[in-house]
């Protein structure tokens, strides 16, 4: 199986229909993703599944209980016609130092900004991440995240589907590899259309998502 990238924090599976995608994940794996929370003002909400260790899967889509945010929803969910793994995140030991190191090596991952979501129990979680607007358009170069004093999502008894492999394809893998190196991580890349593929272990055997 492919190696798991260094510093992996989470994978992002974006969808135009969150409830349908959560139901499909449950049907295929036998594991029901847990409600994560609401991204207030952004028009999205998510469900989460642990990938083992401190890695997890975020399934994110439009929140029908929020009014339209007046701006594009995160991860371009407004433009999706089907669920797709759109990007991934890493969690370096020091977010600001990692940003500066990447810039010194020739890649700017973007400025760190504060984000939040409210869990179903009312708890407001806050974290910092690099601005997706500055990220590589393929989604194959991860954004950076720092949970700081906030409890990490995997510390909240999430259902688990251990990650077996993670890989991606790109028209020019040699363009992507040096950018990954500036961030201190790596990803198994092969030539092809832009896409991310991951396989998880489940009660129904290995299941692959794209």
TrEMBL record:
Pfam families: Glyoxalase_3. It comes from Streptomyces muensis. This is VOC family protein. Residues 8-183 form the Glyoxalase-like domain. The lineage of its organism: Bacteria, Bacillati, Actinomycetota, Actinomycetes, Kitasatosporales.
């Amino acid at each position: 199986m492919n190696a798991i990238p260094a510093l992996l924090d989470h994978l992002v599976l974006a969808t135009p229909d969150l409830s349908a995608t959560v139901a499909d994940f449950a049907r295929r794996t036998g594991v029901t993703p847990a409600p994560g929370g609401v991204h207030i003002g952004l028009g999205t909400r998510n469900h989460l599944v642990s990938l083992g260790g401190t890695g997890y899967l975020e399934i994110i889509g439009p929140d029908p209980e929020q009014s339209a945010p007046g701006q594009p929803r995160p991860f371009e969910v407004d433009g999706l016609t089907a669920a797709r793994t759109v990007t991934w995140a890493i969690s370096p030991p020091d977010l600001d130092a990692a940003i500066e190191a990447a810039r010194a090596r020739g890649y700017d991952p973007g400025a760190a900004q504060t984000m939040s979501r409210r869990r179903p129990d009312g708890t407001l979680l806050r974290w910092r991440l690099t601005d997706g607007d500055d990220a590589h358009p393929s989604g194959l170069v991860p954004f950076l995240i720092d949970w700081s004093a906030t409890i990490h999502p995997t510390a909240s008894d999430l259902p688990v589907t251990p990650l077996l492999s993670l890989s991606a394809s790109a028209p020019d893998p040699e363009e992507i590899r040096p950018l990954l190196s500036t961030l201190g991580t790596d990803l198994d890349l092969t030539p092809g259309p832009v896409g991310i593929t991951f396989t998880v272990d489940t009660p129904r055997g290995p299941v692959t998502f794209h």
